[in-house]
Design goal:
Elements: H1 9-22, H2 28-42, H3 57-66, H4 72-80, H5 95-105, H6 107-126, E1 133-143, E2 146-160, H7 165-231, H8 237-272, H9 276-279, H10 286-301, H11 306-316, H12 318-339, E3 345-354, E4 357-366, H13 371-439, H14 445-480
């Protein structure tokens, strides 16, 4: 049996039965108040009970460990995004695939979405009318232990809000809900940006590990040859020590790069929301990712005019839209404070039946508003609106300056890459010539490998030039807040 906060239904039933047995002749009119009470009690069955829900930390740990890219739920999620069954599971992992993993598994996104849903709940509350109340009175006058006349009455109160306060509160709640949605989208965008930057750093570091391993192998070979020469007396201790120091330095560089690679791998796992061990099973296609980043950066920025980039940023940036939403909230708050100048009214109609007499009454109440208090709150709301307007102007100016810096950096890094490409062409020619001379016996192996070691720096500088240009592309995404590397993914409109 559902319980009412006032009385249980069973108790009310007993009271009604007792009154019926005491009076053999009772009219419908006299019974009606009791029926109203019973109906009121029964309405308690629509109340929502409290449901206690404890946080199970052990279950949270298990959920994290059970997160798997091969799970059925994740497959269903990918199917809802338009993938075919034949494409699953992914065999070639690139940017889009990792972003989908992040969208599904990252707990921060789930929290941000819940905050937006909470704002939507407040939006639904804001449109409600002020609460009303109802009251009932029932009595009997007794004389000499005998029941005489019946007394009963009832009334209710309701509040009338002036100046459209309810509609203004709803407008405010709508703007706050929009702000929460933007916060969710910004969280989604920031996590995506962090993922792309960390992924890029990981791939860059991976490439330098390969080059350093090649350098280490060549220096190890040269050091071994130098040791043999030292052993037969045709090389000095100084020559040997120099090679040992150079080898040790390169070995230290390799260990540091490998340590950074492990840290980056763990950070990538956290960004996508997976256990590190499970993330390590994902076959990343580094060449595919690098080529996409490099190609799109050049294609997107090379021929873009400054005004076009500025227009894109001023219409796409989520933080600017958030600033505008904050301004709308400030204006709605000001509107509400202006409306609060006008008093609300409470009406209390009532009816009473006493000794055959019917009594009707109407009460009207209103809270007197303090003029000075209203002016102070309105002034505060106006200052707040002006503050939010200033933030919008500042952000627009910052965005325009960021775009100008972006374009200058791109042109500079693009020129660096062109120069580096020329150096790579020269390097490749030298390698071919050295290999030919070594083959003909014009140079010995030590001289040949020393020259190859010197040429590795050109390869490192070339990769730095490529990655510096890609960084400008990543900066472009961050400044424009537009997914230029994954144009097929809807980052802003998808809820």
């Amino acid at each position: 049996m559902c319980k009412n906060p006032l009385l249980e239904y069973n108790e009310l039933s007993k009271i009604a039965l007792r009154y019926v047995t005491q009076f053999k002749k009772i009219t419908y009119m006299s019974l009606r108040p009791y029926l109203i009470i019973v109906i009121f009690a029964l309405s308690g069955c629509s109340y929502i009970p409290f449901d206690k829900k404890d946080i199970d930390t052990q279950k949270i740990i298990e959920v994290i460990k059970e997160s798997d890219i091969h799970s059925e739920k994740f497959s269903e999620f990918l199917l809802s995004k338009g993938f075919a069954n034949s494409e699953l599971p992914f065999k070639n992992w690139g940017l889009e695939e990792l972003i989908y993993v992040q969208e599904f598994f990252n707990p921060q996104l789930k929290t941000a979405k819940m905050q937006w849903e909470f704002a939507q709940a407040n939006e639904a509350i804001s449109i409600l009318y002020p609460p009303s109340s109802i009251g009932l009175e029932i009595g009997r006058e007794t004389t000499n232990k005998e029941l005489t006349k019946k007394i009963f009455g009832g009334g209710f109160t309701f509040t009338f809000e002036s100046a459209d306060k309810r509609l203004i509160r709803h407008e405010l709640a709508l703007n706050e809900s929009q702000l929460a949605l933007l916060n969710f989208q910004i969280a989604k965008w920031n996590l995506r940006t962090d993922l792309l930057n960390q992924l890029f750093n990981y791939i860059e570091n991976q490439e330098f590990i390969k080059l350093t391993k090649t350098e280490l192998r060549l220096k190890q070979s040269v050091m071994n040859m130098m040791k043999k020469r030292f052993d037969v007396g045709i090389a000095s201790q100084i020559d040997l020590d120099r090679k040992i120091i150079m080898l040790g330095k390169t070995n230290k560089e390799l260990l540091e790069l490998q340590m950074e690679q492990s840290i980056m791998r763990n950070q990538l796992a956290s960004l996508v929301g997976l256990d590190t061990q499970k993330f390590n099973l994902i076959p990343l296609n580094s060449k595919k990712i690098t080529s996409i980043l490099d190609e799109i950066t050049v294609l997107y920025l090379k021929d873009k005019e400054l005004l076009v980039l500025q227009e894109i940023s001023l219409t796409k940036r989520l933080d600017l839209r958030k600033a505008l939403s904050n301004y709308a909230i400030a204006e709605a708050k000001l509107k509400l404070e202006v409306a609060e100048q006008y008093p609300d009214y409470t009406f209390s109609p009532a009816y009473a039946y006493e000794f055959g007499t019917k009594l009707w009454s109407l009460g009207v109440d209103s809270i007197l508003k303090s003029t000075n208090r209203n002016k102070a709150f309105i002034n505060k709301a106006e200052k707040f609106r002006d503050l939010e307007a200033s933030k919008v102007d500042t952000l627009q100016l910052t965005t325009i300056n960021d775009i100008e810096a972006l374009q200058l950096n791109f042109l500079n890094k693009f020129d660096d890459l062109r120069y580096s490409n020329q150096m790579i062409e020269i390097k490749n020619r030298l390698e071919s010539q050295l290999a030919e001379r070594f083959k003909k016996g014009l140079v010995d192996r030590m001289e040949f490998e020393n020259e190859m070691i010197n040429l590795i720096d050109i390869s490192k500088n070339h990769h730095k030039a490529i990655y510096n240009l890609i960084r400008i592309g990543l900066m472009a995404e961050r400044v424009l807040q537009e997914p230029i590397f994954t144009p097929n993914l809807k980052m802003h409109n998808e809820k």
